[in-house]
Structure formats: structure tokens, C-alpha cells
Write a structure and sequence with these properties.
Oligomer: single chain
Distance between the termini: 62 Å
Order of helices and strands: HHEHEEEHHHHHHHHHH
Length: 350
């Protein structure tokens, strides 16, 4: 037992094992810290997205957004979103913060919004800003109507508002709002599994790295380096084929924490290999058991299908890596033998 523990310790002390293990762990932690799945928001932002009311703490949007709104309250969190071109970040606000501003919001529902603090209006045409103000006032009017239908009861109004999904409150599209609510429920449910997602990515990425470079760590299998290198791209893409990060090749690396970025960058050289009918046939029968831990992003305004790396392309990519590595190794040996021959010839001269 002690001998086994000693061998395991020496194995993890190897720089080829220890360095990537630490890097993957640090990348996961840093990614979640910088870009959490559900970001902390503010009550002022929530009320602006819900009713268009700009309170004192509201600083305006720094960048243009296509739309914004709220989602139903979940787990005592009030949730709002920003609709951007390729993603839809979520923000959560505590119950006490939202309720603390309720009376001030209600007092302003009957007052038209004449100006906006959104910085996106700077340098834009008058019609652009007028349109933004129109959206805010339509939201305000809808909230005012809801408040009156709640018999001007603040608590009843907030309870009713917090059960809604809104894009633009005044002109809801039932089908879209229903779809958005369903997708939001899935995102919220999956976000609770974030630590399972992190654990899976950490274990998988470390194992993938070890599989790729195992011949360098274990001398007994050094002769099979070509097989490990050839299968490495296919192994890297395996979680994607099994339902993890399903939007990997659509609008950017999404659906996970670190894995989508690693997979997308490392498979870029294979983008020149078009998908084949064999890829389609294989993927059509492969189950998707990993979809339940995939962190699926929100609705996008545009989908950008750049390329797709199927199983055939991954194997061809791996074979090309073996060919390149073999060529480089042969060239180095050739150059080394030529230089050695020249050195011996120089030394043998009288």
C-alpha cells in the first residue's frame, strides 16, 4: 500500500501532470468568478427592466442591448435579463432589495418618462432614443395597469409581476414568452448543478490530458504515442457528442465552464474538414446522457454556424497530427545525423 501511494505521489509530481491539473482547476475557479452563470444584479436595474422606471441608483446601460425584461421569481430571487446579440445573461436580486424600492416605483408609475440615462443614446439619432423611451413608457403603462388591476395593493402588484416573463410588457408574444419561460426554467435548474458541471469538466480535462501525454509519463507505453495522439481529438469531442455543450459550434464557446473554450480552440485546425454523411449517421444514434449537466445559454438574437467537427473529422485531425509529429521527429533525426556526420568528418581530418 505504501509503495502504491509512493508511486502515485511521484506520478502527480511530474510537471506534465501537475501543471495542467493546477491550470484546469484555476481556470474553472477564475471563470466562475469572472462570469457566473447567474450574476448579482441590483434592485434599480430590476425595476427598470420590469417597469421602465429609472430610480436614483440606476446608472443606465453602457452598451446597446436588443431587449430586456424579467423572469418569474425563483427561490426568493427576483430575476431579470439583458438580451444581447449572442447571449442572454441572467441577473438575480434579493427579495428585500426589490421590496425596499416598491413604494417609490409605484409612486412614479403615473409619471411619463421624458428622458433616459442609458448611455447608448449618446451619438445616436433622435429617433433611436425616442424608440427607447417609447419602450420604457409602454412598460410603465403596463405596470400601472397591473397595479390598478391589483386594486392598488403594492404586495399584490409585486406578487403578480414576479410571476411573469416579459420581453416588452405592452406587446407580449405568447408563444415566445412561453418558450422563454421554459428555457429559463431549464437554465435555472442546470445552474444549481454548477458544481457537478465543474467537477465533471475538471476530471474529464485532466483525464483527456493524461491520455494524450500518457506515453511521455509511462515509459512502458511510449511506443503507442501515435495511437494516443490520433485518438486525442476524438476523445476531446466525446462530451459534445454525448450532449454536453450542445451549442459549441453555433454562437461561440458556451454550455459549460472551461471545456467549450478548450474544445473550440483546439479543434479550430479541423474546421476545414466538412461534415460527412457518416458523421450525421453516427451522431443521430448516439445518446445524449450529458445534457443534464450542460449549462445551456439563453436565447440568442442570431445563430452563427461557423463549422462543426464530427467524429470523422476528429479522427482525420488526429491522424494529421500524428503525420506532422512523425515528420518533425524524422526531420530532427535526419538533421541530427547530418550534423553528427559533419562533426565526425571535421574531427577526423589530420
Amino acid at each position: 500500500m505504501r509503495e502504491y501511494a509512493s508511486k502515485s505521489l511521484r506520478f502527480f509530481k511530474s510537471p506534465l501532470v501537475a501543471v495542467p491539473t493546477i491550470l484546469f482547476l484555476a481556470a474553472l475557479g477564475l471563470s466562475l468568478h469572472i462570469n457566473p452563470l447567474v450574476r448579482p444584479g441590483t434592485a434599480a436595474q430590476y425595476w427598470e427592466k420590469a417597469c421602465g422606471i429609472e430610480l436614483g441608483a440606476y446608472e443606465g446601460e453602457k452598451h446597446y442591448i436588443y431587449d430586456s425584461g424579467i423572469y418569474p421569481k425563483r427561490d426568493d430571487w427576483y430575476v431579470y435579463y439583458l438580451q444581447r446579440h449572442h447571449d442572454q445573461p441572467l441577473f438575480k436580486v434579493g427579495k428585500e432589495e426589490v421590496e425596499a424600492l416598491l413604494r417609490e416605483v409605484v409612486s412614479k408609475l403615473g409619471l411619463p418618462i421624458a428622458a433616459s440615462r442609458n448611455r447608448v443614446c449618446t451619438g445616436k439619432s433622435a429617433s433611436f432614443c425616442t424608440s427607447e423611451l417609447h419602450k420604457k413608457n409602454e412598460k410603465r403603462k403596463s405596470c400601472l395597469s397591473m397595479f390598478e388591476q391589483s386594486e392598488r395593493n403594492e404586495k399584490a402588484f409585486l406578487d403578480r409581476l414576479s410571476q411573469l416573463t416579459t420581453a416588452t410588457l405592452a406587446s407580449p408574444e405568447p408563444d415566445r414568452l412561453e418558450r422563454m419561460t421554459s428555457e429559463f426554467d431549464a437554465r435555472w435548474k442546470h445552474a444549481k448543478l454548477v458544481w457537478i458541471t465543474c467537477g465533471f469538466e475538471f476530471i474529464f480535462l485532466v483525464c483527456w490530458w493524461l491520455f494524450t501525454f500518457a506515453p511521455r509519463v509511462f515509459p512502458s507505453i511510449a511506443g503507442r504515442w501515435w495511437l494516443h495522439l490520433m485518438l486525442s481529438p476524438l476523445l476531446l469531442m466525446l462530451p459534445h457528442y454525448l450532449g454536453y455543450a450542445p451549442y459549441l459550434f453555433t454562437f461561440g464557446p458556451s454550455g459549460g465552464i472551461v471545456y467549450p473554450v478548450v474544445a473550440l480552440i483546439l479543434t479550430l485546425p479541423a474546421s476545414w474538414i466538412p461534415p460527412s454523411s457518416v458523421d450525421v449517421a453516427i451522431l443521430s444514434i448516439v445518446p445524449r446522457p450529458l445534457s443534464w449537466i450542460s449549462q445551456v445559454p439563453g436565447e440568442a438574437m442570431a445563430w452563427s454556424y461557423r463549422f462543426f467537427v464530427g467524429p470523422v473529422a476528429a479522427l482525420l485531425y488526429g491522424a494529421s497530427l500524428v503525420a506532422i509529429a512523425t515528420t518533425v521527429a524524422w526531420t530532427r533525426r535526419r538533421i541530427g545525423s547530418v550534423l553528427s556526420a559533419r562533426t565526425r568528418a571535421r574531427l577526423s581530418r589530420p
